[in-house]
Amino acid sequence: MILAFDVNETMLDLSSLDPHFERIFDDAAVLSEWFSQLLQSAMVATVTDRYQDFSTLAREALELTARRHDVELSEEDAVATLGQMRELEPHPDVEPALEMLREAGFRLVALTNSPYRTLHAQLAHAGIRGFFEAALSVDEVRKFKPHPEVYRMAAGRLGVEPGELRLIAAHNWDTTGAVRAGCRAAFVARPHRILGKLDEPVDIVGRDLIEVAEAILRTDRP
Known about the structure:
Elements: E1 2-5, E2 12-13, H1 18-25, H2 30-47, H3 54-68, H4 75-84, E3 89-90, H5 94-103, E4 107-112, H6 116-126, E5 134-137, H7 148-158, E6 165-169, H8 172-180, E7 184-188, E8 204-206, H9 209-220
Parallel strand pairs: 1-4, 1-6, 4-5, 6-7, 7-8
Antiparallel strand pairs: 2-3
Helix pairs in contact: 2-3, 5-9
């Protein structure tokens, strides 16, 4: 079983962006609104077959959020906020969980909606690039997760069938997409992250990556 890790929120903590949203909007909680707008834009781009990379959509989502709050977004603030996406800190459970799985003999990859230039910068800044044999972006297929082509592309690049790939993510739409593409999945139930009744069930759920890694060791050990 190859383990494919989502990057943003699953491994990297978006709260690194809080100071920027506090400065621009006087409310760090607007971060969640912006990220939801970004995901919505990514879904629309995929459904309508009008791909633009995640960084481009992130800028548009930030501008839309500013207009919604009647805030004048300066170029300096936009560049600083979006630049921070390349310098997110990892959640504290990430490195120990990856180390645990690597020592057990698992093949690990990263799979993200971010473009390659952002992905490589993120993993390098977080100090975790060395854990992954490959770092894969949706740029390969010009469709965003949870489109099934993304997961099948990852399996193909790694030389395995989809059923031999397990996605690990903190997003219910991501794990659902993976399962419907024929993969297995594990859900990281970080704060305020839940699975819904209409989501595809997964056989591994943990409160953090340590719990998920321990369950994977029991279920999928090579």
